[in-house]
Amino acid sequence: GENVEQHPSTLSVQEGDSAVIKCTYSDSASNYFPWYKQELGKRPQLIIDIRSNVGEKKDQRIAVTLNKTAKHFSLHITETQPEDSAVYFCASLSGGGADGLTFGKGTHLIIQP
Amino acid sequence: DAGVIQSPRHEVTEMGQEVTLRCKPISGHDYLFWYRQTMMRGLELLIYFNNNVPIDDSGMPEDRFSAKMPNASFSTLKIQPSEPRDSAVYFCASSFRDNYGYTFGSGTRLTVV
After folding, report:
1. Phi/psi of residue A49, each to 5°?
2. Distance from CA of B15 to the nearest CA of A (A)
3. CA separation for the pair B74, B72 (Å, rounded)
4. Chain B within 8 Å of A45 (Cβ-Cβ)?
5. What pLDDT is recorded for position A98?
6. A97 — phi, psi (to 5°)?
7. Distance CA B12, CA B3 (A)
8. What is the secondary structure of A8-70 as a DSSP string?
9. Which residues of A74-101 are buried (b: 16+ CB within 10 A; e: fewer)?
10. How far is residue A72 CA from its own chain's centroid?
11. Contact of B14 with B23, CB cutoff 8 Å
């Protein structure tokens, strides 16, 4: 089955700086890559996603890039704010779609004031 | 729409007791997923349904776990008998098609003592 690796496990940045979280996947047929944000005690919420026919997607301060050849994708958050502090999960849907989303282990993003 | 609704929010039970978790997906969504979240293992897919039919239950830990979806608006996850290692947050999620973002419920925090 699909395997998703996520790095780093913890990321601390100064408010206003940028944050980058990286994920790799194993199934070359994977075609859908969402990112979720989970605040403490809350549910994971979809913040952005990208499909395999697109290399980059942006939504205000958040962007995601996909490199199919290298089988990795990244989340970029610019001009970070205190409310960006949370755990972020990447996920991948393998090409067959039969296994559901496979999630990375998560990155705890800490925004330092 | 009220989103994905799970009950109960918290459940504390004694080892050996039966536990039933409930989920109401978003109306019109034809996929329903049960995930378990722990610090050690992250988000693990237990089972998912398409149009009320179980598609993949390979993530169900063992025979003590069972899930049903008797109609499009209701699903249950049952653990019998429960064990302390089953303590986790159990999330239900639904989606329209399998390659769209999942909407998660608020989760059920299960503690088995």
Report:
1. -145, 165
2. 24
3. 6
4. yes
5. 62
6. 70, 5
7. 25
8. -SEEEEETTS-EEEEEEES-TT--EEEEEEE-TTS--EEEEEEETT-SEEEETTEEEEEETTT
9. bbbbeebeeebbbbbbbbbbbeebebbb
10. 10
11. no
Show the 3-state SS of B34-57: EEEEECCCEEEEEEEEECCEEEEC
B103 shares contact with chain A (CB less than 8 Å): yes
Query: By the 8 A CB rule, do B73 and B23 touch?
Result: no
Tracing tokens 């398409």 back to the chain, one arrives at: B50
Cβ within 8 Å, pair A103-B105: no
A34-81 per-position pLDDT tens digit: 999 999 999 999 999 999 888 999 999 999 999 999 999 999 999 999
User: And the tokens for A10?
Assistant: 């913890």
Rounded Cα gap, residues B107 and A41, in angstroms: 9
Q: How many Å apart are CA B71 and CA A107, to the nearest integer?
A: 36
Asked whether the bond before B81 is cis by omega within 30 degrees of 0, the reply is yes
Query: How many residues does the structure list for chain B?
Result: 113
Q: Do B107 and A31 touch (CB under 8 A)?
A: no
Taking CA B105 as the corner, what is the angle to CA B109 and CA B59, rounded to the nearest 5 degrees?
70
Q: Is B89 left (phi over 0), alpha (psi -120 to 50) or beta?
A: beta
Q: Is residue A94 predicted with pLDDT exceeding 70?
A: yes
